[in-house]
Q: What sequence folds into this?
């Protein structure tokens, strides 16, 4: 069986100084960032001064004092999720925030044990480990590269075999941006603009990296 993509998601992670109590489904509906019907059907996991978590049928949001995470596993709603984040950041324009990452995650079904093992050994050869480990195999690998644009930050790729006896591998691309400290008073607006301006480029870069990783599974 050829390698197949069986899961996918996009998440946006903003690091800053947030008030989790704000991020309620009703607030997003009031600000026209989600439909009233979606807000009413939201599943709220927790609302607390330190953390808020809720899910819609196309989105999961988690807010803490240091981090806002919005994730969608529905490709048709990736840009909708981005627009929700941008809308919230534009409204909270006096909130300090300095870093943002866009994560594209997929799960590949390798199709055979041989392809699954060879993929890991191709990335981390057994040779250096054979003398100290019995049948060494890759448990997780993080590879990081410099940005090639005008932003500070990095591109990081994480590869993790799903160790449940099957032959699936999770691959994630983290496109990480760091804003200059001079933008502290308007950083949420800067992040919002960055997400809108760079969205297509981020998606294209992730697609190229993920396609390359998929091509190594043989």
A:
């Amino acid at each position: 069986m050829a390698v197949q993509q069986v899961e996918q998601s996009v998440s946006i992670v903003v690091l800053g100084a947030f008030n989790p109590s704000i991020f309620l489904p009703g607030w997003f509906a009031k600000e026209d960032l989600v439909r009233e019907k979606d807000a009413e059907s939201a599943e709220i996991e927790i609302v607390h001064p330190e953390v808020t978590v809720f899910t819609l049928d196309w989105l999961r949001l988690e807010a803490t004092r240091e981090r806002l995470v919005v994730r969608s596993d529905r490709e048709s709603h990736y840009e909708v999720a981005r627009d929700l984040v941008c809308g919230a950041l534009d409204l909270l324009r006096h909130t300090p925030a300095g870093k943002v990452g866009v994560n594209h995650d997929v799960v590949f079904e390798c199709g055979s044990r041989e392809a699954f093992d060879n993929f890991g050994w191709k990335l981390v050869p057994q040779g250096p480990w054979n003398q100290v480990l019995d049948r060494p195999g890759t448990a997780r690998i993080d590879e990081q590269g410099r940005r090639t644009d005008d932003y500070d930050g990095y591109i990081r790729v994480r590869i993790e075999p799903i160790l449940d006896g099957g032959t699936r591998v999770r691959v994630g691309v983290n496109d990480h941006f760091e804003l200059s400290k001079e933008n502290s008073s308007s950083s949420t607006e800067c992040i919002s603009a960055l997400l809108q301006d760079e969205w297509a480029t981020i998606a294209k870069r992730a697609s190229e990296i993920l396609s390359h990783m998929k091509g190594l599974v043989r």
